[in-house]
Amino acid sequence: MMPTMLALIEPDNDSPRTAVFLHTILSMGFCLIGNVYILVNYLTVVALLTTMFSVAALVYIKWKDIPVSTNAVKFHILWPILNFIINVALLVIPVIVEPVKSGIGLALFLLGVDTLL
């Protein structure tokens, strides 16, 4: 479990008030950047990669019959695989059209992976 300071959760009522406030401040700061569309392109690649790896982990868990919580929502394996295929298609288009911006987005993604490890 993450320390409360890093999770940005208020210890009194377990609400993410601090995280929401920080997210709002950062969003307002991003609006002041000259060309927001470049930032959107970077973050699109990051979001698609994050979703792809999460869905790939779910498919792996389902395929290998790894035990999960009894409260977990059960889906047919087709839906995560379909989601993964759509995400791959959505990721290939920006990589072909704008490879430099996609590379920067990939670097941001890998920076986040390095931070988590």
From TrEMBL:
State one molecular function term (GO): L-amino acid transmembrane transporter activity
Keywords of the record, alphabetical order, are:
Membrane, Transmembrane, Transmembrane helix
Where is the chain membrane-spanning?
20-39, 45-63, 75-97
Q: According to the lineage, what is the superkingdom?
A: Eukaryota
PANTHER family xref list: AMINO ACID TRANSPORTER
Name this polypeptide is given: Uncharacterized protein
Q: Which organism is it from?
A: Strongylus vulgaris
Q: What is the lineage of its organism?
A: Eukaryota, Metazoa, Ecdysozoa, Nematoda, Chromadorea
